[in-house]
Amino acid sequence: MNETNEPQQLPLGLYWKDKKTTVDRIVLPFQNLEVIETINESRATREKEKGSMFRKDPNALEVDWRNKLIWGDNKYVMSALLEKYSGQVDLIYIDPPFATGANFSTTVSIGDNEIEHTKDANAMEELAYRDTWGKGLDSFLQMMYDRLILMRDLLSEKGSIYVHLDYRTAAYVKVLLDEIMGSDRYCNAIVWKRGRMKGAKAVGHQYGRNHDIILLYSKSSKFCYNRQFIPYTKEYIKQRYTKNDNDGKGSYTDQPIGTRSKKAIERLREEGRVFKTKGGTERIKFYLSKMPGIALDDVWIDIDEVNSMAEVNLRYPTQKPEPLLERIIKTSSNQGDLIADFFGGSGTTAAVAEKLGRRWITSDLGRYAIHTTRKRLFELEGCRPFEILNIGKYERQYWQTFNFGKKSLEQTLAEYTSFILKLFIAEPLPGSAYIHGKKGVKLVHVGGVDSPVTLSDIQNAL
Prior knowledge:
By secondary structure, this protein is an alpha/beta fold. The chain folds into three domains: about 30-230 and about 295-395, Vaccinia Virus protein VP39 (Rossmann fold, 3-Layer(aba) Sandwich), CATH 3.40.50.150; about 235-295, no CATH class; about 405-460, no CATH class.
């Protein structure tokens, strides 16, 4: 306190070792995002419409728009997107890495067999891992600070951002968002209980951990918010909606008038919903047929995490349930709005945005994440055309320098191909642009350094 006994205003912000408040913006032109594959029609749609003479897309959003799945470091992806999409993204959901582990395991199906596979980080992921966790929490906070600044600049005036976190980083990122978005733009800290009836495993002398925190901030006071409701249970209806005037309007419950405005009360009177009790107190009728349910609050206990019983289970370690993203997207966007997820993972945000008629951009650094998302969308019936892009030669040069030093592109590709052939114990076959080796009676094609294997690659190899 100062001499006037007024509270002192502390500088807003979180401080960590070597904090940089000026974002090292890599100015990349939008054209630097290279289209490496265009998906015009999903496999599910093609199979359903096979033999049909006429095809149409009743949910078409824009003639020239294509949804975008981007492979690359999201800092450089967002830097490139800013040229064209600054102030254009209506909703961002991100699920950044919580833990410090660089590897993860997943189950891969090969024929009728399932194999537990440990996926090591590739070179780009290894670099990103060092940037994210190399100096512990300090480097994580700097990574998040830089990226949240870029996300703020991409958001439209009606836009909002949801940041999905757990107990390790939620408190720190809350202060970061207060600094970047403004503490007055804070809306909620949503508590998502991952399992409704599950006893969480306790660690030592601690309560079991069974929830995540999702922080919600808006870009301005004009942000989109469509209130969501949870349907009433049969027990709730039986307990509360006990009255019926037999006038054809159905069962109802009632509440005191309370602090409603005169205008609101007059409107309720005109609707015939205000009545007097025997004691002369005025109350309001609420008819079950007109009530959408219980207004959703900031504690979500009705959505289970992805488990063996989930409708969509891709066996991706950080996969989030579709109902969770459905609730977020329905609340904070409308049809045709642009949704983004820059830690795309298994592609849940893109898949749900697609089903709900939103445009979307999603990115991830991991090749496995891009393949998982591509396959997920490719098998989605009615999926609109989308592009697979990467950050182009900038990231390619970064990867090349990290792995092979400052050599020519030809030398890099030759050494990369040789490395992959050795990895698969295959014999090199020089002279072909698409067939690179031989293993027994099988021919080997090595995909590019900087892109997933595409349908065009397979056709050329064939």
